[in-house]
Amino acid sequence: xxxxxxxxxxxxxxxxxxxxxxxxxxxxxxxxxxxxxxxxxxxxxxxxxxxxxxxxxxxxxxxxxxxxxxxxxxxxxxxxxxxxxxxxxxxxxxxxxxxxxxxxxxxxxxxxxxxxxxxxxxxxxxxxxxxxxxxxxxxxxxxxxxxxxxxxxxxxxxxxxxxxxxxxxxxxxxxxxxxxxxxxxxxxxxxxxxxxxxxxxxxxxxxxxxx
Length: 211
Hints:
Layout: E1 6-9, E2 14-17, E3 20-25, E4 31-37, H1 43-58, H2 65-70, E5 78-80, H3 88-96, E6 100-104, E7 118-123, E8 129-140, E9 146-153, E10 159-164, H4 171-179, H5 181-195
Parallel strand pairs: 5-6
Antiparallel strand pairs: 1-2, 3-4, 6-10, 7-8, 8-9, 9-10
């Protein structure tokens, strides 16, 4: 037995010993599966090596090869994640595999004019209807990839920027899918507070190559 490596725990604002779990969940927060990494390589590597291959095999209702060939903007499914997975090269890699991504823009430009925003009735994943001030532009990323940039302006005037390679869904659907991540956040908050979800039961060691 040995001490686990340290990693930054945001809610504690400390470096603590532990493992890292990556949860793949549905839009409403219901979990599909979890990937545990004692030595954490980062979200992008876990997405490439552990999450995307499994989703490609397991996600039901994916379009056929013929459908993908005849509809250039059709995608197999959509990945939604936060800024930790921001990478224009990864977005292009997923687009080439016909997988759409939705995430926060890590480097948005200045604020857009207020007259670009229009109030739209948006149905959230829990069935609630809300009014959101939304606007959309096309944005070219650093690697030349064109994406949709959708912004939400709140009552204080703050603009939240979301980018996506889902070129077919309505603007309000893309925005609602990004904000649906809060279902997952709330699930973890509840499970940590009431069920000790992050309690480490036991740990051990196994040899790894020097490289």
